[in-house]
Design a protein that fits this description.
- With 119 residues, this protein is an all-alpha fold.
- It has two domains: 86 residues; 29 residues.
- The protein is built from eight helices and no strands.
- It is elongated, with a radius of gyration of 16 Å.
Length: 119
């Protein structure tokens, strides 16, 4: 399998399209289609691996990967996947609105002294 095949498989497993991955800003629009013919830069592979919370070898070799227990705890991985799927379906204006609301919430929680908020 190629790197692109492995990315497509991860997208399918996480309920996101290649287009959604590009819209999320993980890679530039249309760049993934080129991965079938040319090798991507390591920075691009790292970005995709980080997005899906998988090791790089999952993209390079397609090796089976068990999600770490901390990601599985309380459904964090599933919540992140659902969030990305919903977010990728929004218009650009809606995405900007959601991001502004989340930033405002984070600032409020930080001002209230919530230790779980990091910058």
């Amino acid at each position: 399998m190629t790197i692109l095949d492995n990315v497509k498989k991860l997208c399918e497993e996480n309920g996101i399209t290649i287009n959604g991955l590009e819209k999320a800003g993980v890679v530039t629009r249309g760049s993934l289609a080129k991965w079938d013919k040319t090798s991507p830069g390591i920075d691009k592979v790292v970005s995709v691996a980080h997005f899906f919370h998988v090791p790089i070898d999952r993209l390079l070799e397609g090796t089976k990967y068990e999600k770490p227990a901390d990601l599985m705890a309380d459904g964090l991985y599933e919540k992140n996947a659902e969030l990305m799927k919903l977010f990728s379906s929004l218009s650009e204006d809606q995405k900007d609105t959601v991001l502004a609301q989340l930033r405002g919430l984070a600032q409020l929680q930080k001002a209230l002294g919530d230790p779980s908020i990091s910058e």
